[in-house]
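Query structure, 293 tokens:
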């Protein structure tokens, strides 16, 4: 097997996926069937490393050409997977992308029970930037914990705690409210580990009852309806790419959870529905402890 020599190289199955012709699972099937050539030679090993900028890749004799770049923001509902196809036939986010013709891949993932913002694209460089730990693109979540958490427990999240895969970075944490049994808080992290927020809460001796990702970088849910999607604007793409010149704040590029001034900064705005979920319905005089978000 070839090994990568520089940052441009990718495995052959990933290259096919990034060109937007199909998922990596489909690509591996095509490669194994002998339908793919690299520089005129048939390759049936999906893990071969190639340079997509300089190597000529063909599928069924047709050269791969870069598709028009797509950048999509989806408000993922509960119960949907972020995989392309599920062997058990469960719904996936691709069932919601009814007008998207080219293959796009999720930038990071949300588990089946988590709702909120999910970016999908066919621009691998853009996706790699957002998911790279070095980029420190912040992601903000609203959390409903299964117990009442005291200030010392929230401080553990702020300062970082140790999980099975190592210590976490400091996080921005803001208590939203407490009901009779549950704590509601907002957390902004700059990592993207598997089920990270859930595992952080579990390390405190609690469980996550509800989890919503409300912001990625400077992008917030706003008026986007659950289950719907829209294209990212050029300004949003620029900001997520780390080139925005706007002042940073939590939920925006440039946030530094390890700085005291960022710990005290205001949290990202929430739209009306999320504000009601997180803050209760005080205008109607409802008792917060009786409310069931």
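Result returned for the query:
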């Amino acid at each position: 097997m070839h090994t990568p020599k520089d940052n441009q190289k990718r495995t052959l199955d990933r290259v096919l996926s990034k060109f937007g012709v199909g998922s990596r699972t489909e690509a591996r099937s095509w490669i194994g069937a002998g339908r793919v050539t690299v520089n005129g030679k048939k390759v049936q090993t999906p893990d071969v490393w190639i340079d997509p900028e300089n190597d000529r890749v063909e599928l069924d004799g047709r050269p791969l050409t870069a598709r028009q770049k797509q950048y999509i923001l989806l408000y993922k509902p509960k119960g949907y997977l972020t995989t392309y196809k599920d062997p058990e036939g469960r719904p996936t986010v691709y069932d919601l992308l009814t007008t998207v013709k080219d293959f796009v891949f999720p930038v990071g993932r949300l588990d089946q029970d988590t709702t909120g913002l999910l970016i999908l694209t066919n621009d691998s460089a853009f996706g790699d930037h957002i998911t790279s730990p070095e980029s420190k693109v912040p992601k903000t979540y609203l959390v409903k914990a299964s117990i009442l958490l005291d200030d010392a427990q929230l401080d553990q999240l702020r300062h970082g705690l140790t999980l099975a895969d190592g210590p976490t970075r400091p996080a921005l944490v803001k208590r939203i409210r407490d009901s009779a049994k549950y704590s509601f808080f907002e957390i902004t992290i700059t990592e993207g580990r598997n089920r990270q927020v859930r595992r952080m809460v579990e390390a405190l001796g609690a469980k996550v009852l509800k989890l919503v990702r409300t912001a990625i970088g400077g992008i917030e849910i706003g008026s986007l309806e659950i289950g719907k999607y829209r294209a990212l604007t050029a300004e949003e793409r620029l900001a997520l790419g780390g080139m925005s010149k706007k002042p940073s704040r939590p939920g925006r590029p440039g946030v530094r959870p390890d700085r005291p001034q960022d710990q005290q900064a205001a949290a990202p705005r929430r739209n009306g529905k999320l504000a009601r979920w997180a803050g209760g319905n005080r205008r109607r005089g409802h008792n917060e402890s009786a409310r069931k978000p």
